[in-house]
Queue: 3 jobs
Job 1
Amino acid sequence: MNSQHPHEPKIYLLPNLMTAGNLFCGFAATLRIIEASLLAVQGLPTGMLYHEAIAFILGACVFDLLDGRLARLGGHESAFGREFDSLADIVSFGIAPALLVYQIVLRDFQRSGWLIAFFFLLCGGLRLARFNCIAAATSDKPEKDFQGFPIPAAAGLIASLTLFMLWLREDERSIGSWKYALPVLLIFLSFMMFSRVKYPSFKSLNWRTQRSLPAFLGLILLLAFTAMNYYWMPAVLFVGFLIYGFVRPFISKAIRKEIEAEPQDEPETPVEGS
């Protein structure tokens, strides 16, 4: 006898494996931050654990990028995948970065620090809930843009800037009061996630996307330069994406299509004998 519920959701393997990888990275990052806080109480070095936590948060960004791409490429987008992705996101891009900033600087503010970290987490959760509602209502014609700064980008920006600050400290450069920019950034990004500023989703970017040779070479050089300067270059990219949302309305449509990898309008092919 088949006891399966008539509304049992379809679970596609590959996209949801990527989402599971996202969730694992968020869980591992949270564990590393907690371990670092326990070592800090004993006066032991914590830098390596924070580095690992940041690496896991950035790794979660990669998994989050892949799950949606694979689902759309195979035509396997589903309500289950969307909800599972949001649950993973709240761990990897909500709890983990909020806890990271709290441990590094916000605990100096005591209860105010709790509130700032929770405010980011709350706004992230509400942002994901709003996104799911909009996606469900427009499932027949998906939105091309994100309304508000995406939570994975917000977490990536926080993690990459924290990595840059840790690099400064380890190289015996003075951070000074710069670390107090993190709480300000946390609050700013909380509001940005609910803003009306639109950001490209890059949903049209897939394995069949074609670009000119100079654009391809430029992308390869950018990736290579980022890998060689991983302590500070990811922060530049995330800050650039944040600023892009503000300048985007003033950029011509042709340049925007090139940057956002939107498909170009193909000229009509004349029919023989017409």
Job 2
Amino acid sequence: MNLGTLIGLVLGTGLIGTAAYLSSAATGVSLMALVDVVSLLIVVGGSIAATAIAFKMKDVIRLFGLLKMIFKDDGFTLGDVVDDLCDLAEANRRGRKELEAALSSNPQGMNFRMHMVKDGCELILGGTRIEDIETIMENMEAYREQRETQEMNVMKSLGVYAPAFGMVGTLIGLVFMLRGMGQPPPPGMDVDPQAQMGKSMAVALITTLYGALFANFLFLPFADKLKGKNEDKKVQSALMTEGILLIAEKAHPLQVREKLNAYLPPKMRKKLEDE
């Protein structure tokens, strides 16, 4: 679970809820005044519909799977990947069978956190040339980046469309409100025009509120989260590609660690003498 995302959602919900409660207590208006199903349908339904027009349907459907990615943490660090690559480098220097054993039996608790590492080692075992391994792994990364950038763009589009449909809902409400001002009240009902106008205006503005909340509290932050994860994976992929190429060259584990440490934050780097 990504703790930052969870804390942000809980904190934001708490602050907005507290503000709404205090406003309700000060004015004597029920919190239910902020609930309007029609406005919700206009904002959420309209945003999804516009996104479906702009993107392929499979990309829109994949949005539901993205929610899991947003809340899921990697569960490992770049330092862990470096450790794995150094262990694999040592196994490959001992011979083909040692590398095969490392990939199949995982004897020392080696954790293959990324499929890219295992795929690269299988290419080495298959006798693929180093130049071809580099090309294949670069292509894998290019397609991954393209796919996840598209997913980020879909989420970002929801954040762009939500405020627009919030305004559409507000305009619809204003049209009906102004249209109703020119009509006499129903027979037998004594309606205060100013009170009725204020109520209608409040309902019309709820849609704008929903649009702003969904865009700035959910869709756009989620899109930024996906963008950040994509950037992190670029570093991971570059690290793993260089590591696999070093393994293919039968580089010494100390040399592998020394070169791969350049990808790590200073606090995460392990000194060579600790090996």
Job 3
Amino acid sequence: MLKDKLDNLRKNGALIHNITNYVTVNDVANALLACGGSPIMADDEEEAPEITAICGGLNINIGTLNKRTIPAMYAAGRKANELGHRVLLDPVGAGASRLRTETARGLIREIRFDVIRGNISEIKALAVGTETTKGVDADVADAVNEDNLSEAVEFVKSFARREGCVAAVTGAIDLVSDGQRCFVIRNGRPEMGRITGTGCQLSAVMTAFITANRREEVLESAAAAVCAMGLAGEIGFFRLSPGEGNATYRNRIIDALYHMDGDQLEKGARYEIR
């Protein structure tokens, strides 16, 4: 099932407009290229709708939010909706500041998102106003684990139903739901949390996956992206040599994405559906 999603992306490609944060923009571009997509970055309000119009998908990431780029996010999102393009929101740091939280909620009110992808603290901040985000990282008190997994699955399903989209909550255990079904994914390595931008890369890669595949398969496409990124983290970690650290690990992950094919993804993906 997941094999086809990566194969379609490799075959069809996907030009993705990224309004993303400047901390990770280069890694986002390289991760997109590695998985078969193509990146373009534009965050000025004057050109954002025009750039979105020539793309197939839009990835909005609020990681380095500022007053100049917020209007561009709205303008690009409205144009993408008008054209029927895939749109993803990564509400980085929602709950950490009022500007981030209110901007994310405003975007959700005004723009129809196919996927909202964040960590559990960010999604809780958007859902119920519980603001326990640790900067841009999830608070340890919110972490999804085996003990609270059933409760977390129901929470993510409820959020997806309320927002009318696929909700992708990533962490030690990843949850991807359309409100009815939930993929519980156990790929990845804890060391991925020591690299800046793996979540930002995933959001861009996920936008490419959902753009290259059919709209009625957004859930499966989003889950395939999560599995692919997690599997790349596993492969990259085991290819590290003594003395290599997080800088090399970042490159190993992108290399693993570059070389991954559908068969490898299907074999390596570890998930269940609830």
